[in-house]
Amino acid sequence: MRSILSIIKGPFMPSSLFAKRSAYRGTARTSLRARLHVLVLLLLTLPATASPLFGPIAEVLRHPRCMNCHTVTDFPRQGDERRRHAQLVMRGEDGHGAPTLPCAACHQDTNIDHAGVPGAPHWHLAPLSMGWEGLTDTQLCQTLIDRSRNGDRSIDSLLEHMRSDPLVLWGWNPGAGRTLPPLTHPQFMDALQAWRAAGAPC
Ligand code: HEC
Ligand code: HEC
After folding, report:
1. Of 10, 62, 65, 95, which residue is most buried, by most CB within 10 angstroms?
2. What's the 61 CA to ligand 1 centre distance in angstroms?
């Protein structure tokens, strides 16, 4: 667990916050602002991640239902063990597979449970710039909000994407025999909204 000091001094903390904290230490009146700062500092001392508000979000993004498409490889992955996709399926120019074996040859707009083929509209791999494998929570957060990598999305449009995109929603309706992300979709949206309300900290 990081010491409070190293967190306060860490590169992601605005130094002004540290200065203000020292400044109000001596004053008798505890303003709402000061109390909010103390709350933020307390939250930051929780062990798991740089930004505790992003922790639960990262756990969903890292779940195989999301990560199997958000790869940094030339191919998708399958299953909870995240094995390489069978049939030598490749990413192709635009994430829709090789011309000879496009995703749509097998993946339809809905799951086909009797054949075990998952499906949702516009089924294809996320672009490499949206690949999330191997990142720490902070890096994952930074990649997510980086408009040069995330399809030029604001925080609001990121939330809208995660509220309504069919490929995201498929993660909670993945077809028989597939596990679900650790939060329900409404819990995930609540976590995203709390994170946005705090200024989307990484
Ligand atoms: C079938 C493949 C597939 C699955 C499964 C999938 N995604 Fe994506 N995802 C994509 C594609 C393709 C894009 C790019 C869409 C675009 O830019 O229009 C994308 C883009 C995104 C983006 C916006 C860009 C970014 O990286 O910031 C977010 C956020 C996102 N997905 C979240 C999720 C979450 C959360 C899940 C799991 C619940 C998930 N995705 C599952 C294919 C997938
Ligand atoms: C030849 C048919 C075929 C093609 C082509 C194909 N897939 Fe699949 N895909 C499948 C089948 C069948 C499964 C289910 C395998 C299983 O559950 O064991 C699957 C599973 C997946 C999964 C895993 C879902 C999960 O979370 O476990 C992803 C992701 C995926 N495919 C993405 C793609 C993408 C992206 C393309 C195109 C680049 C593609 N597939 C092309 C047949 C295909």
Report:
1. 65
2. 9
